[in-house]
């Protein structure tokens, strides 16, 4: 092309501007995915949920052993609140089979029911294998929700490895629960999420006892890695098999523990 004297032929700035715009959009998209991933493993707290989570942890980790008495006014004083939210929390813990209200006396931490544990385990296996299969069918590499889910799950697994290395089995139990909740949320069946949440309350105390006796947390982490790999591969049946294997890994120790801990089981 002929260029008149005094003029230079500069390349158009549009391609560079478009490239910069694309990079900015990509960076924003990654930040949004990361933010979404961070929210996957936790719910937004309320006053009631903070009190519930603390009492739940005390009961599940056996800081409050079966038979231990707790009182509304005592808990209200600890959290510097009225008795109303504490009473609501107690009602939730009763529904979760973690507390028994004794009229005019307070509330007693429930003993663990062998029958309830066995039945809850069967229900959990059925529901969580359905949820993980749905998660595998839903996962898509190009989907932002799928990317955020994978990021959250893998961050959780890294944290699990850290707490196991520190022999913090109580922390691992909580991270294990978060892992399973994230899968059920991603599967987008809130009925499964709610039902499993109810039965897990009873199973989680058993889980802590099992970890104290068996120390198979490293094996559980390997199952977690295989489960997310099957989900990302879109293999519903493979994900189902890995989840079932994971849920059954401690079953062989359960009857032995029942026999040896008559102080907490009925």
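^ structure tokens above, recovered residues below v
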């Amino acid at each position: 092309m002929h260029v008149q004297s005094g003029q230079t032929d500069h390349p158009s700035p549009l391609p560079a501007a478009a490239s910069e715009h694309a990079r900015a959009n990509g960076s924003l998209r990654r930040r949004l995915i990361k933010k979404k991933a961070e929210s996957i493993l936790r719910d937004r707290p309320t006053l009631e949920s903070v009190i519930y989570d603390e009492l739940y942890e005390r009961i599940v980790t056996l800081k409050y052993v079966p038979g231990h008495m707790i009182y509304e006014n005592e808990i209200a004083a600890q959290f510097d609140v009225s008795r109303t939210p504490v009473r609501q929390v107690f009602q939730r813990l009763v529904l979760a089979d973690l507390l028994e209200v004794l009229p005019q006396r307070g509330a007693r931490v429930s003993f663990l029911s062998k029958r309830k544990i066995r039945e809850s385990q069967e229900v959990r296996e059925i529901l969580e294998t359905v949820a993980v299969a749905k998660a595998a069918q839903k996962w898509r590499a190009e989907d932002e929700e799928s990317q955020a889910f994978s990021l959250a799950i893998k961050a959780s697994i890294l944290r699990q490895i850290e707490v196991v290395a520190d022999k913090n089995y109580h922390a691992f139990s909580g991270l294990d629960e978060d892992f399973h909740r994230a899968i059920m949320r991603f599967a987008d069946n809130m009925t499964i999420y709610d039902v499993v949440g109810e039965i897990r309350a009873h199973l989680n105390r058993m889980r802590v006892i099992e970890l104290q006796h068996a120390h198979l947390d490293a094996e559980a982490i390997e199952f977690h890695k295989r489960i997310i790999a099957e989900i990302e591969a879109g293999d519903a049946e493979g994900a189902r098999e890995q989840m079932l294997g994971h849920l059954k890994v401690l079953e062989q120790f359960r009857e032995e523990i029942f026999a040896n801990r008559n102080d907490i089981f009925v």
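Residues 1-8 have pLDDT under 50 and may be disordered.
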